[in-house]
Amino acid sequence: MKFDRLRHDMVEKQIEARGVKDSRVLAAMRKVPRHLFVSEALMDQAYNDFPLPIGEQQTISQPYIVAEMTQALHLTDKDRVLEIGTGSGYQAAILAQIAYRVYTVERLHSLYVKARKLFDQLGYHNIVTRYSDGTTGWKDESPFDAIIVTAGAPEIPEVLVKQLAIGGRMVIPVGNQYAQELTKIVRDEKDIHQTNLGGCRFVKLVGEYGWREQ
Ligand code: SAH
Prior knowledge:
The protein is α/β, with parallel strands linked by helices. The chain is 29% helix and 27% strand. It has one domain: Vaccinia Virus protein VP39 (Rossmann fold, 3-Layer(aba) Sandwich). It is globular. S-adenosyl-L-homocysteine is lined by residues 58-61, 84-85, 87-88, 90-91, 105-108, 111, 133-135, 150-151, 203, 205-207, 210.
């Protein structure tokens, strides 16, 4: 199969070659059919080393960024994960291969509907979807073992940090609308520890604790 070969090449040349080592992340990236998360016209490019448009001026992230963010969450099969920014659903599918359950929130209705359909078609029964502003989190289902924000925030929404379990991990791009720093937050009994994983570029996180709607 053409796409299987392209996918295995992607993992070897873009992800392992850049130092991602978590075997669960590598296995998930070898398994999830990324080409099904983009439009038919872009399928041949789905395994290339860049982001792609998914409609509504949004993008599916570059494969390496998905791998790096997922690895930073140190997931186990017991973990409940919150994702803000469902988009194509690809990142949620990767998380769902590794974690116990994924809760994913999308603010654009057409993308939410499309992703929900795809999860059902592909049999991702451990992904729970929601159509709303994710900057306020998902209080009823909190605390989460991990939180991943896949859109760029002007600052870290405090309300999301509060929905992290003790020992919980969060990754979030923080910066202006053109460039952000991928930021990792770990919550322990007493403190919040913050580290910087490097530069990145995401579409805007729009909502109450993100950027204001244009
Ligand atoms: N994780 C996605 C990346 C999508 S791009 C994937 O794998 O394809 C970022 C997404 O975040 C867009 O779909 C955008 O609509 C969504 N988004 C932006 N602000 C949001 C908010 N406040 N709540 C929920 N989703 C948001």
